[in-house]
Specification:
Strand content: 15-25%
CATH topology of the largest domain: Udp-n-acetylmuramoylalanyl-d-glutamate--2,6- Diaminopimelate Ligase, Chain: A, domain 1
Distance between the termini: 56 Å
Family: Belongs to the GTP cyclohydrolase I type 2/NIF3 family.
GO molecular function: metal ion binding
Strand order of the largest sheet: 5-6-8-9-10-7
Radius of gyration: 20 Å
Keywords: Metal-binding
Shape: globular
Low-confidence stretches: none
Pfam family, one: DUF34_NIF3
CATH class of the largest domain: Alpha Beta
CATH architecture of the largest domain: 3-Layer(aba) Sandwich
Helix content: 25-40%
Number of domains: 2
Number of strands: 11
Structural class: alpha/beta
Largest sheet: 6 strands, mixed
Subunit structure: Homohexamer.
Oligomer: single chain
Order of helices and strands: HEEHEHEHHEEHEEHEHEHE
Length: 274
């Protein structure tokens, strides 16, 4: 019999919670990890529509990237959709676990997966944060690497659309740099605008991240750093990657449970054109 604790303990050997940022809330979100696990679903987000999918597919353990309980609840008023979602999860005996910035920082984790999607070579951490207490290796936020071949900012923007299978993205580029070739690329999944100066300092010609604000974009332009705001949702790569890890560990440990990936698209933004 495999329990939620079995999965959690093995995963935390890969992405220790100690690797998470101090402000984050990773690990068990709600439910009982001592219960047997028969079907696991990997997901980027734990939203009401994802929970409904889990119920319909008889899932008893949701393994997601973004914490379901990122902000502490001050009341348990079930008229609030978020609180109602917690109630639904508990009513159906579904355990929820989140691996957020510990997965971002982990070697072989989120940002390595994103760097692989861009086919970057000579990849290294963008920022070395510390030493993994289990592996003894350096870990850090973001990645820095080389493109297979240099390309213009416009071509690089198209490359990102193709590799991340996006319908649109925001390209931030100084008009004077439109013919400059991009070779060295920094990438940080999620909201990474605070790291743009580090990307520039580390020699990146372009930076890929999400959630770039208006004034930050002006500063990037003034500093001649090309940036592709590919959105937060590119982190959905974690669904298949986490499923692959769980399948590997299932085989190694002779565990008996099913693994599926969420089919719900939780991207909140839609691109419209005139």
């Amino acid at each position: 019999m495999t329990t939620g604790n079995d999965l959690i303990q093995r995963f935390e050997m890969f992405a220790n919670p100690a690797l998470a940022e101090s402000w984050d809330h990773v690990g068990l979100q709600l439910g009982n990890p001592e219960r047997p696990v028969k079907r696991v679903m990997t997901a980027l987000d734990c939203r009401p529509e994802v929970v409904q999918e889990a119920i319909e597919k008889n899932v008893d353990f949701i393994f997601n990237h973004h914490p379901a309980m990122f902000h502490a609840a001050k009341t348990l008023d079930v008229r609030d959709p978020q609180i109602a979602m917690y109630q639904t999860l508990l009513e159906h005996g579904i355990t929820v676990y989140a691996a957020h910035t510990n997965l971002d920082n982990a070697n072989g984790g989120m940002n390595d997966w994103l760097a692989t999607q861009l086919e970057l070579t000579n990849v290294e951490p963008l920022q070395i944060t510390g030493i993994d207490p289990i592996s003894g290796r350096d870990y850090g936020m973001g990645r820095l690497g080389d493109l297979l071949q240099p390309m213009s900012p416009a071509a690089f923007g198209q490359w990102c659309l193709e590799k991340f299978q996006l319908n649109g993205a925001r390209l931030i580029v100084n008009p004077a740099d439109q013919k400059q070739l991009i070779k060295r690329v920094a990438i940080l999944g999620g909201s990474g605008q605070d790291f743009w100066q580090l990307a520039k300092k580390r020699g990146a010609d372009a930076y890929v991240t999400g959630d770039v604000s208006y004034h930050f974009a002006h500063d990037m332009i003034a500093s001649h750093l090309t940036v592709v705001d590919a959105g937060h949702h590119i982190e959905a790569v974690c669904q298949d990657q986490l499923a692959s890890l769980l399948k590997k560990w299932r085989q190694e440990n002779d565990w008996d449970f099913e693994i599926i990936t969420s089919e719900i698209n939780t991207e909140p933004f839609k691109f419209i054109v005139k």
